[in-house]
């Protein structure tokens, strides 16, 4: 999504921000808290240079739109969605396209808003940190204090923001994938899903409870199978009793969805369900 290019674009502006941080700290150490106007002027300069060091919001929005649109294209237009929905027809997925496009648009808007709020919070925190320190320095200045440490604290929040924004990009992509997959599952009348975790992947910071869910089968409520009394919750139980795949921050788990009774473990079928499965098998064999 052009994140490396974005990092290069902002390097010069980050250098300007670092220089302003240094100037602000030196000035306050020299003069101390002699007037609120001095603090406010530096706050304004710090905020302005901090915003300039970040990728412009318009470009960030475009990168976000393009990145999520590419995920949608891979899943729906290029057919990757079928790997998580064995047996579902292209007709069903095509019928769901208007709803899936709406999911994409909603995710783009929500992601952009999340990044903007995160930026505001980070800059506000930086300003509060600087103001708290600046107003504590006695009038006339002081030679005491860890100048380098203070500068590092102030600028660290901004330098880490680019990394956090990249994580938001990635996380929102996983959430879009999970949302699209669930809409397809419901539209295609799935009856259950098998949880898949990446806990075996080297370096992946998995959740222990998600590792325990790996390969577990969760039943969906209000499906044709539950309405007919063909299935029952055993083992993992109902899907709505746990957090969904992709719901928690930076969760990369996914579901492989189940549509047929024959793909469920025998103990998840009721007596009526087993009889129905036998009936279908006889019918197919005849």
Residue windows where pLDDT falls under 50 for at least 5 positions: 1-9
Taken together, the total number of domains comes to 2
Taken in chain order, the helices and strands follow as: HHHHHHHEHEHEH
Describe the global form. elongated
Helix content: 55-70%
Q: Note the gap between the termini.
A: 54 Å
Q: Total strand count, please?
A: 3
Mean pLDDT: 89
Total of DSSP H or I helical runs spanning 4+ residues: 10
Strand arrangement in the largest pleated sheet? 2-1-3
Question: Which structural class should the secondary elements be placed in?
Answer: mainly alpha
| Residue fraction in strands | under 5%
Radius of gyration: 27 Å
Biggest sheet statistics = 3 strands, antiparallel
Describe what this molecule looks like in 3D.
There is one protein chain. The chain has 286 residues and is mainly alpha-helical. The chain folds into 2 domains: 185 residues, no CATH class; 94 residues, no CATH class. 62% of the residues lie in helices and 5% in strands. Strands 2-1-3 form a 3-stranded antiparallel beta sheet. Helix 4 runs antiparallel to helix 6, helix 4 packs parallel to helix 7 and helix 6 packs antiparallel against helix 7. The N and C termini lie far apart (54 Å).
